Amino acid sequence: MLISVKAFPDSKKQEIIKKSEQSFEIKVKEKPIAGAANRAIAFMLASYFEVPFFNVKLIKGFKQRTKTFNIKGL
Fold first, then answer.
1. Residues of the chain by 3-state class (helix, strand, coil), percent to 5
2. How far apart are CA 13 and CA 62, in angstroms?
């Protein structure tokens, strides 16, 4: 399943806001340095969908605010 995410790195709190069935806004405390924010977003998605972390892959938007993740096992 492909998920569209609008990322908000370096936020004061961490949260997931569901905009639609396949669109989310995710706020993470990590800074966008060396992929730390991307890893934090992937971890939050894995927890949200209750799948193992390795089933969440960033497909598009490595350095952009809008990202596409593939979540296996849904």
1. 25, 40, 40
2. 22
CATH number at residue 10: 3.30.1200.10
Q: Are 56 and 45 in contact (CB under 8 A)?
A: yes
Cβ(5)–Cβ(25) under 8 Å?
yes
pLDDT tier for residue 74 given thresholds of 50, 70 and 90: confident
Domain that holds residue 26: 2-71
What amino acid occupies position 50? E
Q: How many CB atoms lie within 10 A of CB 23?
A: 13
Average pLDDT estimate for 38-62: 95
